[in-house]
Amino acid sequence: MIALPCLVIVPLVGGLLAWIGGRKWPGTRVPWIASLATLCVMTAVLLDVTIRAIGRPGPWLAHFSAPWIPSLGITLRADMDGLSLVLLWLTGVLSFICVLLASRDETQRPGLFQFLLLTTISGVNGVFIATDLFLFLFFWELMLVPMYILIVLWGHEAREAAAIKFFLYTQGGGLLMMLSILGLVLLHYRHTGVLTFDYFALAGTAMSGRASILLMLGFFIAFAVKLPVVPLHVWLPDTHTQAPTAGSVLLAGILLKTGGYGLIRFVVLLFPDATAQITPLAMVLGVVGILYGAWLSLVQTDLKRLIAYSSVSHLGFVLLGVFSGSTLGIEGAVMQMVAHGLSTGALFAIAGSLQDNLHTRDMRRMGGLWGVLPHLSATGLFFAFASLGLPGMANFVGEFLVLLAVWHVSPVIAVLGAFGLVLSAVYSLTMVGRVFMGTRSSDAPRLPDFGFRQMTVFGLTMAVVVLLGLYPRPVLDLVHPTRPDVVSVLSQSAGGNGPG
Amino acid sequence: MMPTFSALPPSVVVLSLGTMVLMLAITIKRSEIIDAVLTLLTLLVALAVLPMGAAPSALFAVDDWHRFSSALIILSSIGVLAMSWRDPTVREAHAPDEFYLLLLMSALGAVLMTAGRNDITFFIGLETLSLSLLGLIGYRQHRIEAGEAAMKYVVLSGVSSAILVFGFALSYAETGSLVFAAPHALHPVEPLLAAMATVLVMTGMFFKLSAVPFHTWLADVLEGTSIPVAALLSVVSKIGLFAAMLRYFAGFDLMTPGSVSDEVTAVALLSMIGGNLLAIGQTDLKRMLAGSSIAHIGYLMVALLAPGAFGLGSAGFYLAAYAAATIGAFAIMEAVSPNHTHLNSLQGLFRTRPALALGMAVMMASLAGIPPAVGFFAKVYVAVAGVSAHRDLLLAGLIVGSVMGLFYYLRVVRVMLMPATDEVSTGRIAAPGNAVLISALALVTLVLGVYPSLLIPRNPIHLGADVEAATLPVSTQTAIR
């Protein structure tokens, strides 16, 4: 099946075309249109994959495999299950938000901008489908570079420090993961004499408790940096604040989700025993993240920083859900990832728009925007409500399911986590009050409100958030992550070698 | 061919003949074009005859490892040749002819080193290389910094050669043989003497490889020389020495803890951290690359300390990746501004000369080990070797070093992304040879990064018959004496 590699190749090629177009016809909208067209093609491919997947018998919905580095047992192997599919769709939707809203206004070197954006998306897509561990690592590292350049070139005042912080943290985590991958591969090699990086083959590796914990930790730290888990979240507030709007949306909406995805796919499913052992620690870290992030959000005056810290808080629920040890928890975690991606992505887009107009992110200098910018303010209000977990919206479903799952494991943690919801109501409403309500100073200039384009995009996003909030069943059914010992029917015909 | 010559590696024969022809040509008519063409031809022929075999002998090991590392050396020399063609700094004071002669001789020395199976053949190769490098470093003799660099190099090179020879002497006293291998491998009678001999030989090699703590000369020397010579110093001479070092330890059990493996481990760790620390603080590109090259020698030693299939394979791959990226970086510096190698000279390069900037970014990504450049796979490969040998401490060093390395590799990229200064570069077009070199290296770096299996031989590289060398009949050994 060629569709899976297309998900990686299409954005890459489209990005190159956008870049070339931008150089060839400077001052036009060619790169933007090329980028949009690329996303349309990508969505079409995704749609194709989805439609084909509907009739599939197995949990694995698509498969691709080709030789790559045979002497080290590395193949170009990609498989897609429901979890990947949901996250790929999230990526698709958010990329449209990025390109439609955020990046049209990047006037400096728009071609390069679109190229970097699409390369990042290409890497993220690769991460979501790769089932060869080397290939996964390749994509994992690949998506960092374009993001780094995006921040360095188009970021705000302290961009350079923020960009390097982002890179060092994630790269450090990635290198630890590299060691874990190699350790796992060589352990498998020692036992079986087969050198392979295949996810399915490695899942059956027999190992001692200590070895499995060590190997698992390498993966865990890499994903914990990305998710982020307190205390490895240090890079996040700075990076999100300094990144250009599209960068913030991409970071919060998608890049962080690769951490959650990795935790499910490569920690919980690959090392079930070791996961059980660190569950208490992970739970505590999760709840600390929820409360700490929420607490810091309360005192922020910088709008983007507030949203960034709220991300730390919301993604604590993902950690809780993933480590709750139940399907319910994982369903909740994925729902929370999707909901957070949509709502926080939208909030960052709104914050970016405000900054473009007001030239400040300081909430003390905002206020009373409702009268001036009714559309923008209403949108902001909606997503603030979504983000605080108002029932009827996707975030509520995610948080509720996670808390339910955690309650069976540890009521104390569940209660503490629920406090996070209270705090999130406080900071979200404070934000709404400070930014949109109140009185506006009379000498403020007139500001352009959201027009048709923005309202369409945000309207559709709102519809998705509400739809998922009211009828989450289809997504929840899809996201049961597939255990690696369930080998794809698709790959068996191609000579797949699961451990059985 | 006479039987005496049939044992010589064919490339050594070609390179020696080429050197003589070039010398003759210079005496007849001084012409840079003739010199360059002759040098290029010699190198190409030497490359072409690499697959040929040679009669087995106690002096040379004409094996896969020799072929692989010699191919790298010759290709790198061709790269340096392309870089120095029309380079103003090379011949600002002097006729350029001897530059090519010395270049050819240094390639000869390095190739000889990779094949040396005997202390004497190795030492001849090493000295050929060192002396030609000395000539190259001091080539711009009117420049005070060139004199300083040459002086530094000659003193330290001399000292390290002396240490090395002393080590050989001890080794001879212990084993009664001049086989180029760590004496431990030859069943020592006197373990202390054997260990001392090994440590001294290693120290001598570390000096030349500029591993920490014997690294202090490298940054100064690179700064004082022209860019092509700096590339030669940090690539060709290091490949030759590292290849020889691998051969030296081929029969030695580095896995059992002992003074020797401890020393190598310590030097490797120090090099990774020290090299990166040195590079972080630099604002001069040549000094920065000196630090980077020290750190890479440290990473390479992880492969050295992980004997077995992975160790040798990853060492070879890493050397290739390192050589391509380092020569590429120097070539781009040469194309941007041959005389001014401050970091500032790259400022705004993405705007003024985007192709060069992109090339530099690829090279930096490769050195930093970021995909899709080849350095990423090289680093993973070396880490595979390290993990397979349980070198936990070294792997930790590799990670810390890599993260530190990001600082300065990314800084180069960042400077290039910055807006150009007012004094926009003159728009000097890269010399054709250099342009070809840069594009070829960028292409190689990217293609190998995506398809590394192109450079991984189907069968693992063979490191000669070192066991056979260790058990050579005494008659041949005495014959050598």
TrEMBL record, chain B:
The chain crosses the membrane at residues 6-26, 38-62, 68-86, 98-116, 122-139, 151-172, 192-214, 226-249, 264-281, 288-310, 316-336, 356-381, 393-410, 431-451. InterPro entries: NADH-Q_OxRdtase_suN/2, ND/Mrp_TM. Its EC number is 7.1.1.-. It comes from the Bacteria. It is a multi-pass membrane protein. GO terms for cellular component: endomembrane system; plasma membrane. Its main location: membrane. It is found in: Cell membrane; Endomembrane system; Membrane. The keyword NAD applies. GO terms for molecular function: NADH dehydrogenase (quinone) (non-electrogenic) activity; NADH dehydrogenase (ubiquinone) activity; quinone binding. NDH-1 is composed of 14 different subunits. Subunits NuoA, H, J, K, L, M, N constitute the membrane sector of the complex. This is NADH-quinone oxidoreductase subunit N. The gene is nuoN.
